[in-house]
Amino acid sequence: MTHQEDELLPLSGIHHFLFCRRSWALITVEQQWDENIFTIKGHEFHKRVDDPFENQSGPSLIVSRSLPVRSFKLGLTGVCDLVEFHPSKDGVNLAGHSGLWKPIPIEYKRGLPKPDARDEVQLCAQAICLEEMLSVTVERAFLYYGKTRHRTEVSLDQQLRDLVTNSAKEMHQLYARGYTPQARYKKECKSCSLVEICLPTIQTEASDVKKYIQRFLEEDQ
Amino acid sequence: MKKLGNVLYVTIPEAFLSLEGETIIVEVEEKPKTRLPLLNLDAIVCFNWIGISPKLMGACVERKINLTFLTPYGKFLANVSGNIRGNVLLRRKQFALAESKEESLSISRNIVYAKIYNQRKVVERTIRDHSMVIDQAKLRDVSEKIKQSIQSAKDAKDTEELIAIEGYVAKQYFSCFNEMILQQKDEFAMNGRNRRLPLDRMNALLSFLYVLLANETRSALESIGLDPYVGFMHKDRPGRPSLALDIMEEFRPILCDRLALTLVNRRQISPSGFLIKESEAVLMDDETRKQVLTAWQERKKQEIIHPYLKEKIPYGLLPHVQSLLLSRHIRGDLPEYPPFFME
Ligand code: SF4
Fold first, then answer.
1. Segment of A187-201, B214-228, B248-262 carrying the highest mean pLDDT
2. Which partner for A216 in B201, B225, B260, B341 could form a disulfide, CB atoms 3.0-4.6 Å apart?
3. Is B277 helix (H, G, I), strand (E, B) or coil?
4. How many CA atoms lie within 13 A of A86 on its CB side?
5. Which residues are CB-contacts of B260 (< 8 A; sequence separation ≥ 6)?
6. ipTM of this predicted complex?
7. CB atoms within 10 A of CB A6
8. Pocket perturbation via mutation, ligand 1, pick of A21, A38, A189 by most ligand atoms within 8 A of CB
9. Which of A182, A203, A213 sits opposite B110 (nearest CB)?
């Protein structure tokens, strides 16, 4: 299934979606957003990425920053932090450049690699966008972590690609229903920027509203 | 929890506010009077006619500082808000619940429970703290009647019946309000509750506090993404923030009534601070308004444990917290709306 222009969802949302579906829904479906210290630091990091690849564009490399991309197949649109184009025989023509080029997306992340695949999935979604837009296959992609100052190559295998496709599909389903999944309190909630909007504990701990009300009404009767 | 920032109340009708760097300049008749930093400001409430510069408005919108204009007498004029929380789905669900008789009744009933409970709490506290100097029998009688009304509220079959019960309780409650005035009794005695025009000092004081609370409740609902004009108990009426009025019923006794009694009983305000107009309407003078606003600010900083969330919050966040809980119910996260009971 392909999507129309006005159905595209933010690509970066797939990152939230894998972290917590509710957090994605609060941001995307309900348009709630609160900045906390982590997200603000994240912006700052992105703003002044001290960049080992600066000024490397030349005859054998084109560096494109903040490259807007989209995929109608995934129904996602977003911006790649950085895409390197390397000369390649099975690459594509690029406007304003001669020769054939192949894109390698590189995504910057503050902090350390995550225990789950959310960074990889976001990167892979970017790769799929680039493939669709440029009619080229993207074989290599990297994550760059601020804390370790290392690029790690991510293998864009079928399993990861399926995870991207399925997540995007599920995002569109939830979005169409306007549905926000229920909260389940977990340790990630402590550092979640939406915790004050989400109130994940109210459904687990103090959840019985009936009992709560009765406690007061029958206090001294 | 969200932090309770400071609120700037501009009570001088001739004031003009502008922004210079990160500083608000308050000018009166084109002479700078006050400067204060924009930082840590939660809201600006203007009781002035002259206004505020668009640049400062923009800065407020950007930083989510709520900016409201009231007339010098406290009537709502306008609110400046940017496109921050455009949650149309939540609003649709809110409208759907407001259309449904059962859902409206369920939410309204919980609100009324808390209102009645909190009113009774105010009476009970007076009995507990001042048993020597009050007409105990009278207060106990009212407290008992309020308690019995809880059962009637349980049995109410529709919102109309509920509103009637709520009205009955309010009448009982205000019938003993004078008993709870321990100092400056004659000057602050109230002759029933009059809404349209305050006809005595206590009514003037209460009305002013209710305006402050209504304004804060309205903007709390807005910032959560609910429509303050579509209520469950109060019927729609153009220009009336029905939902804000619904929700604030719970807080009135705790936040406004108790504060009014404290101000009078501790002689923090005096009868001479009120003007009695030719029409018998009573108005507060500027000095008294300032004292009330300062006390209001102080009261908002006092902390309580929210009995449902079991979290410590300042009183001033109650409108925000209850709006949030209401939105959780509207979205289906909570089976019922948990109102605020004063422990
Ligand atoms: S607080 Fe927890 S449940 Fe709520 S959005 Fe964040 S991670 Fe998800």
1. B248-262
2. B341
3. coil
4. 9
5. B202, B205, B206, B209
6. 0.81
7. 5
8. A189
9. A213
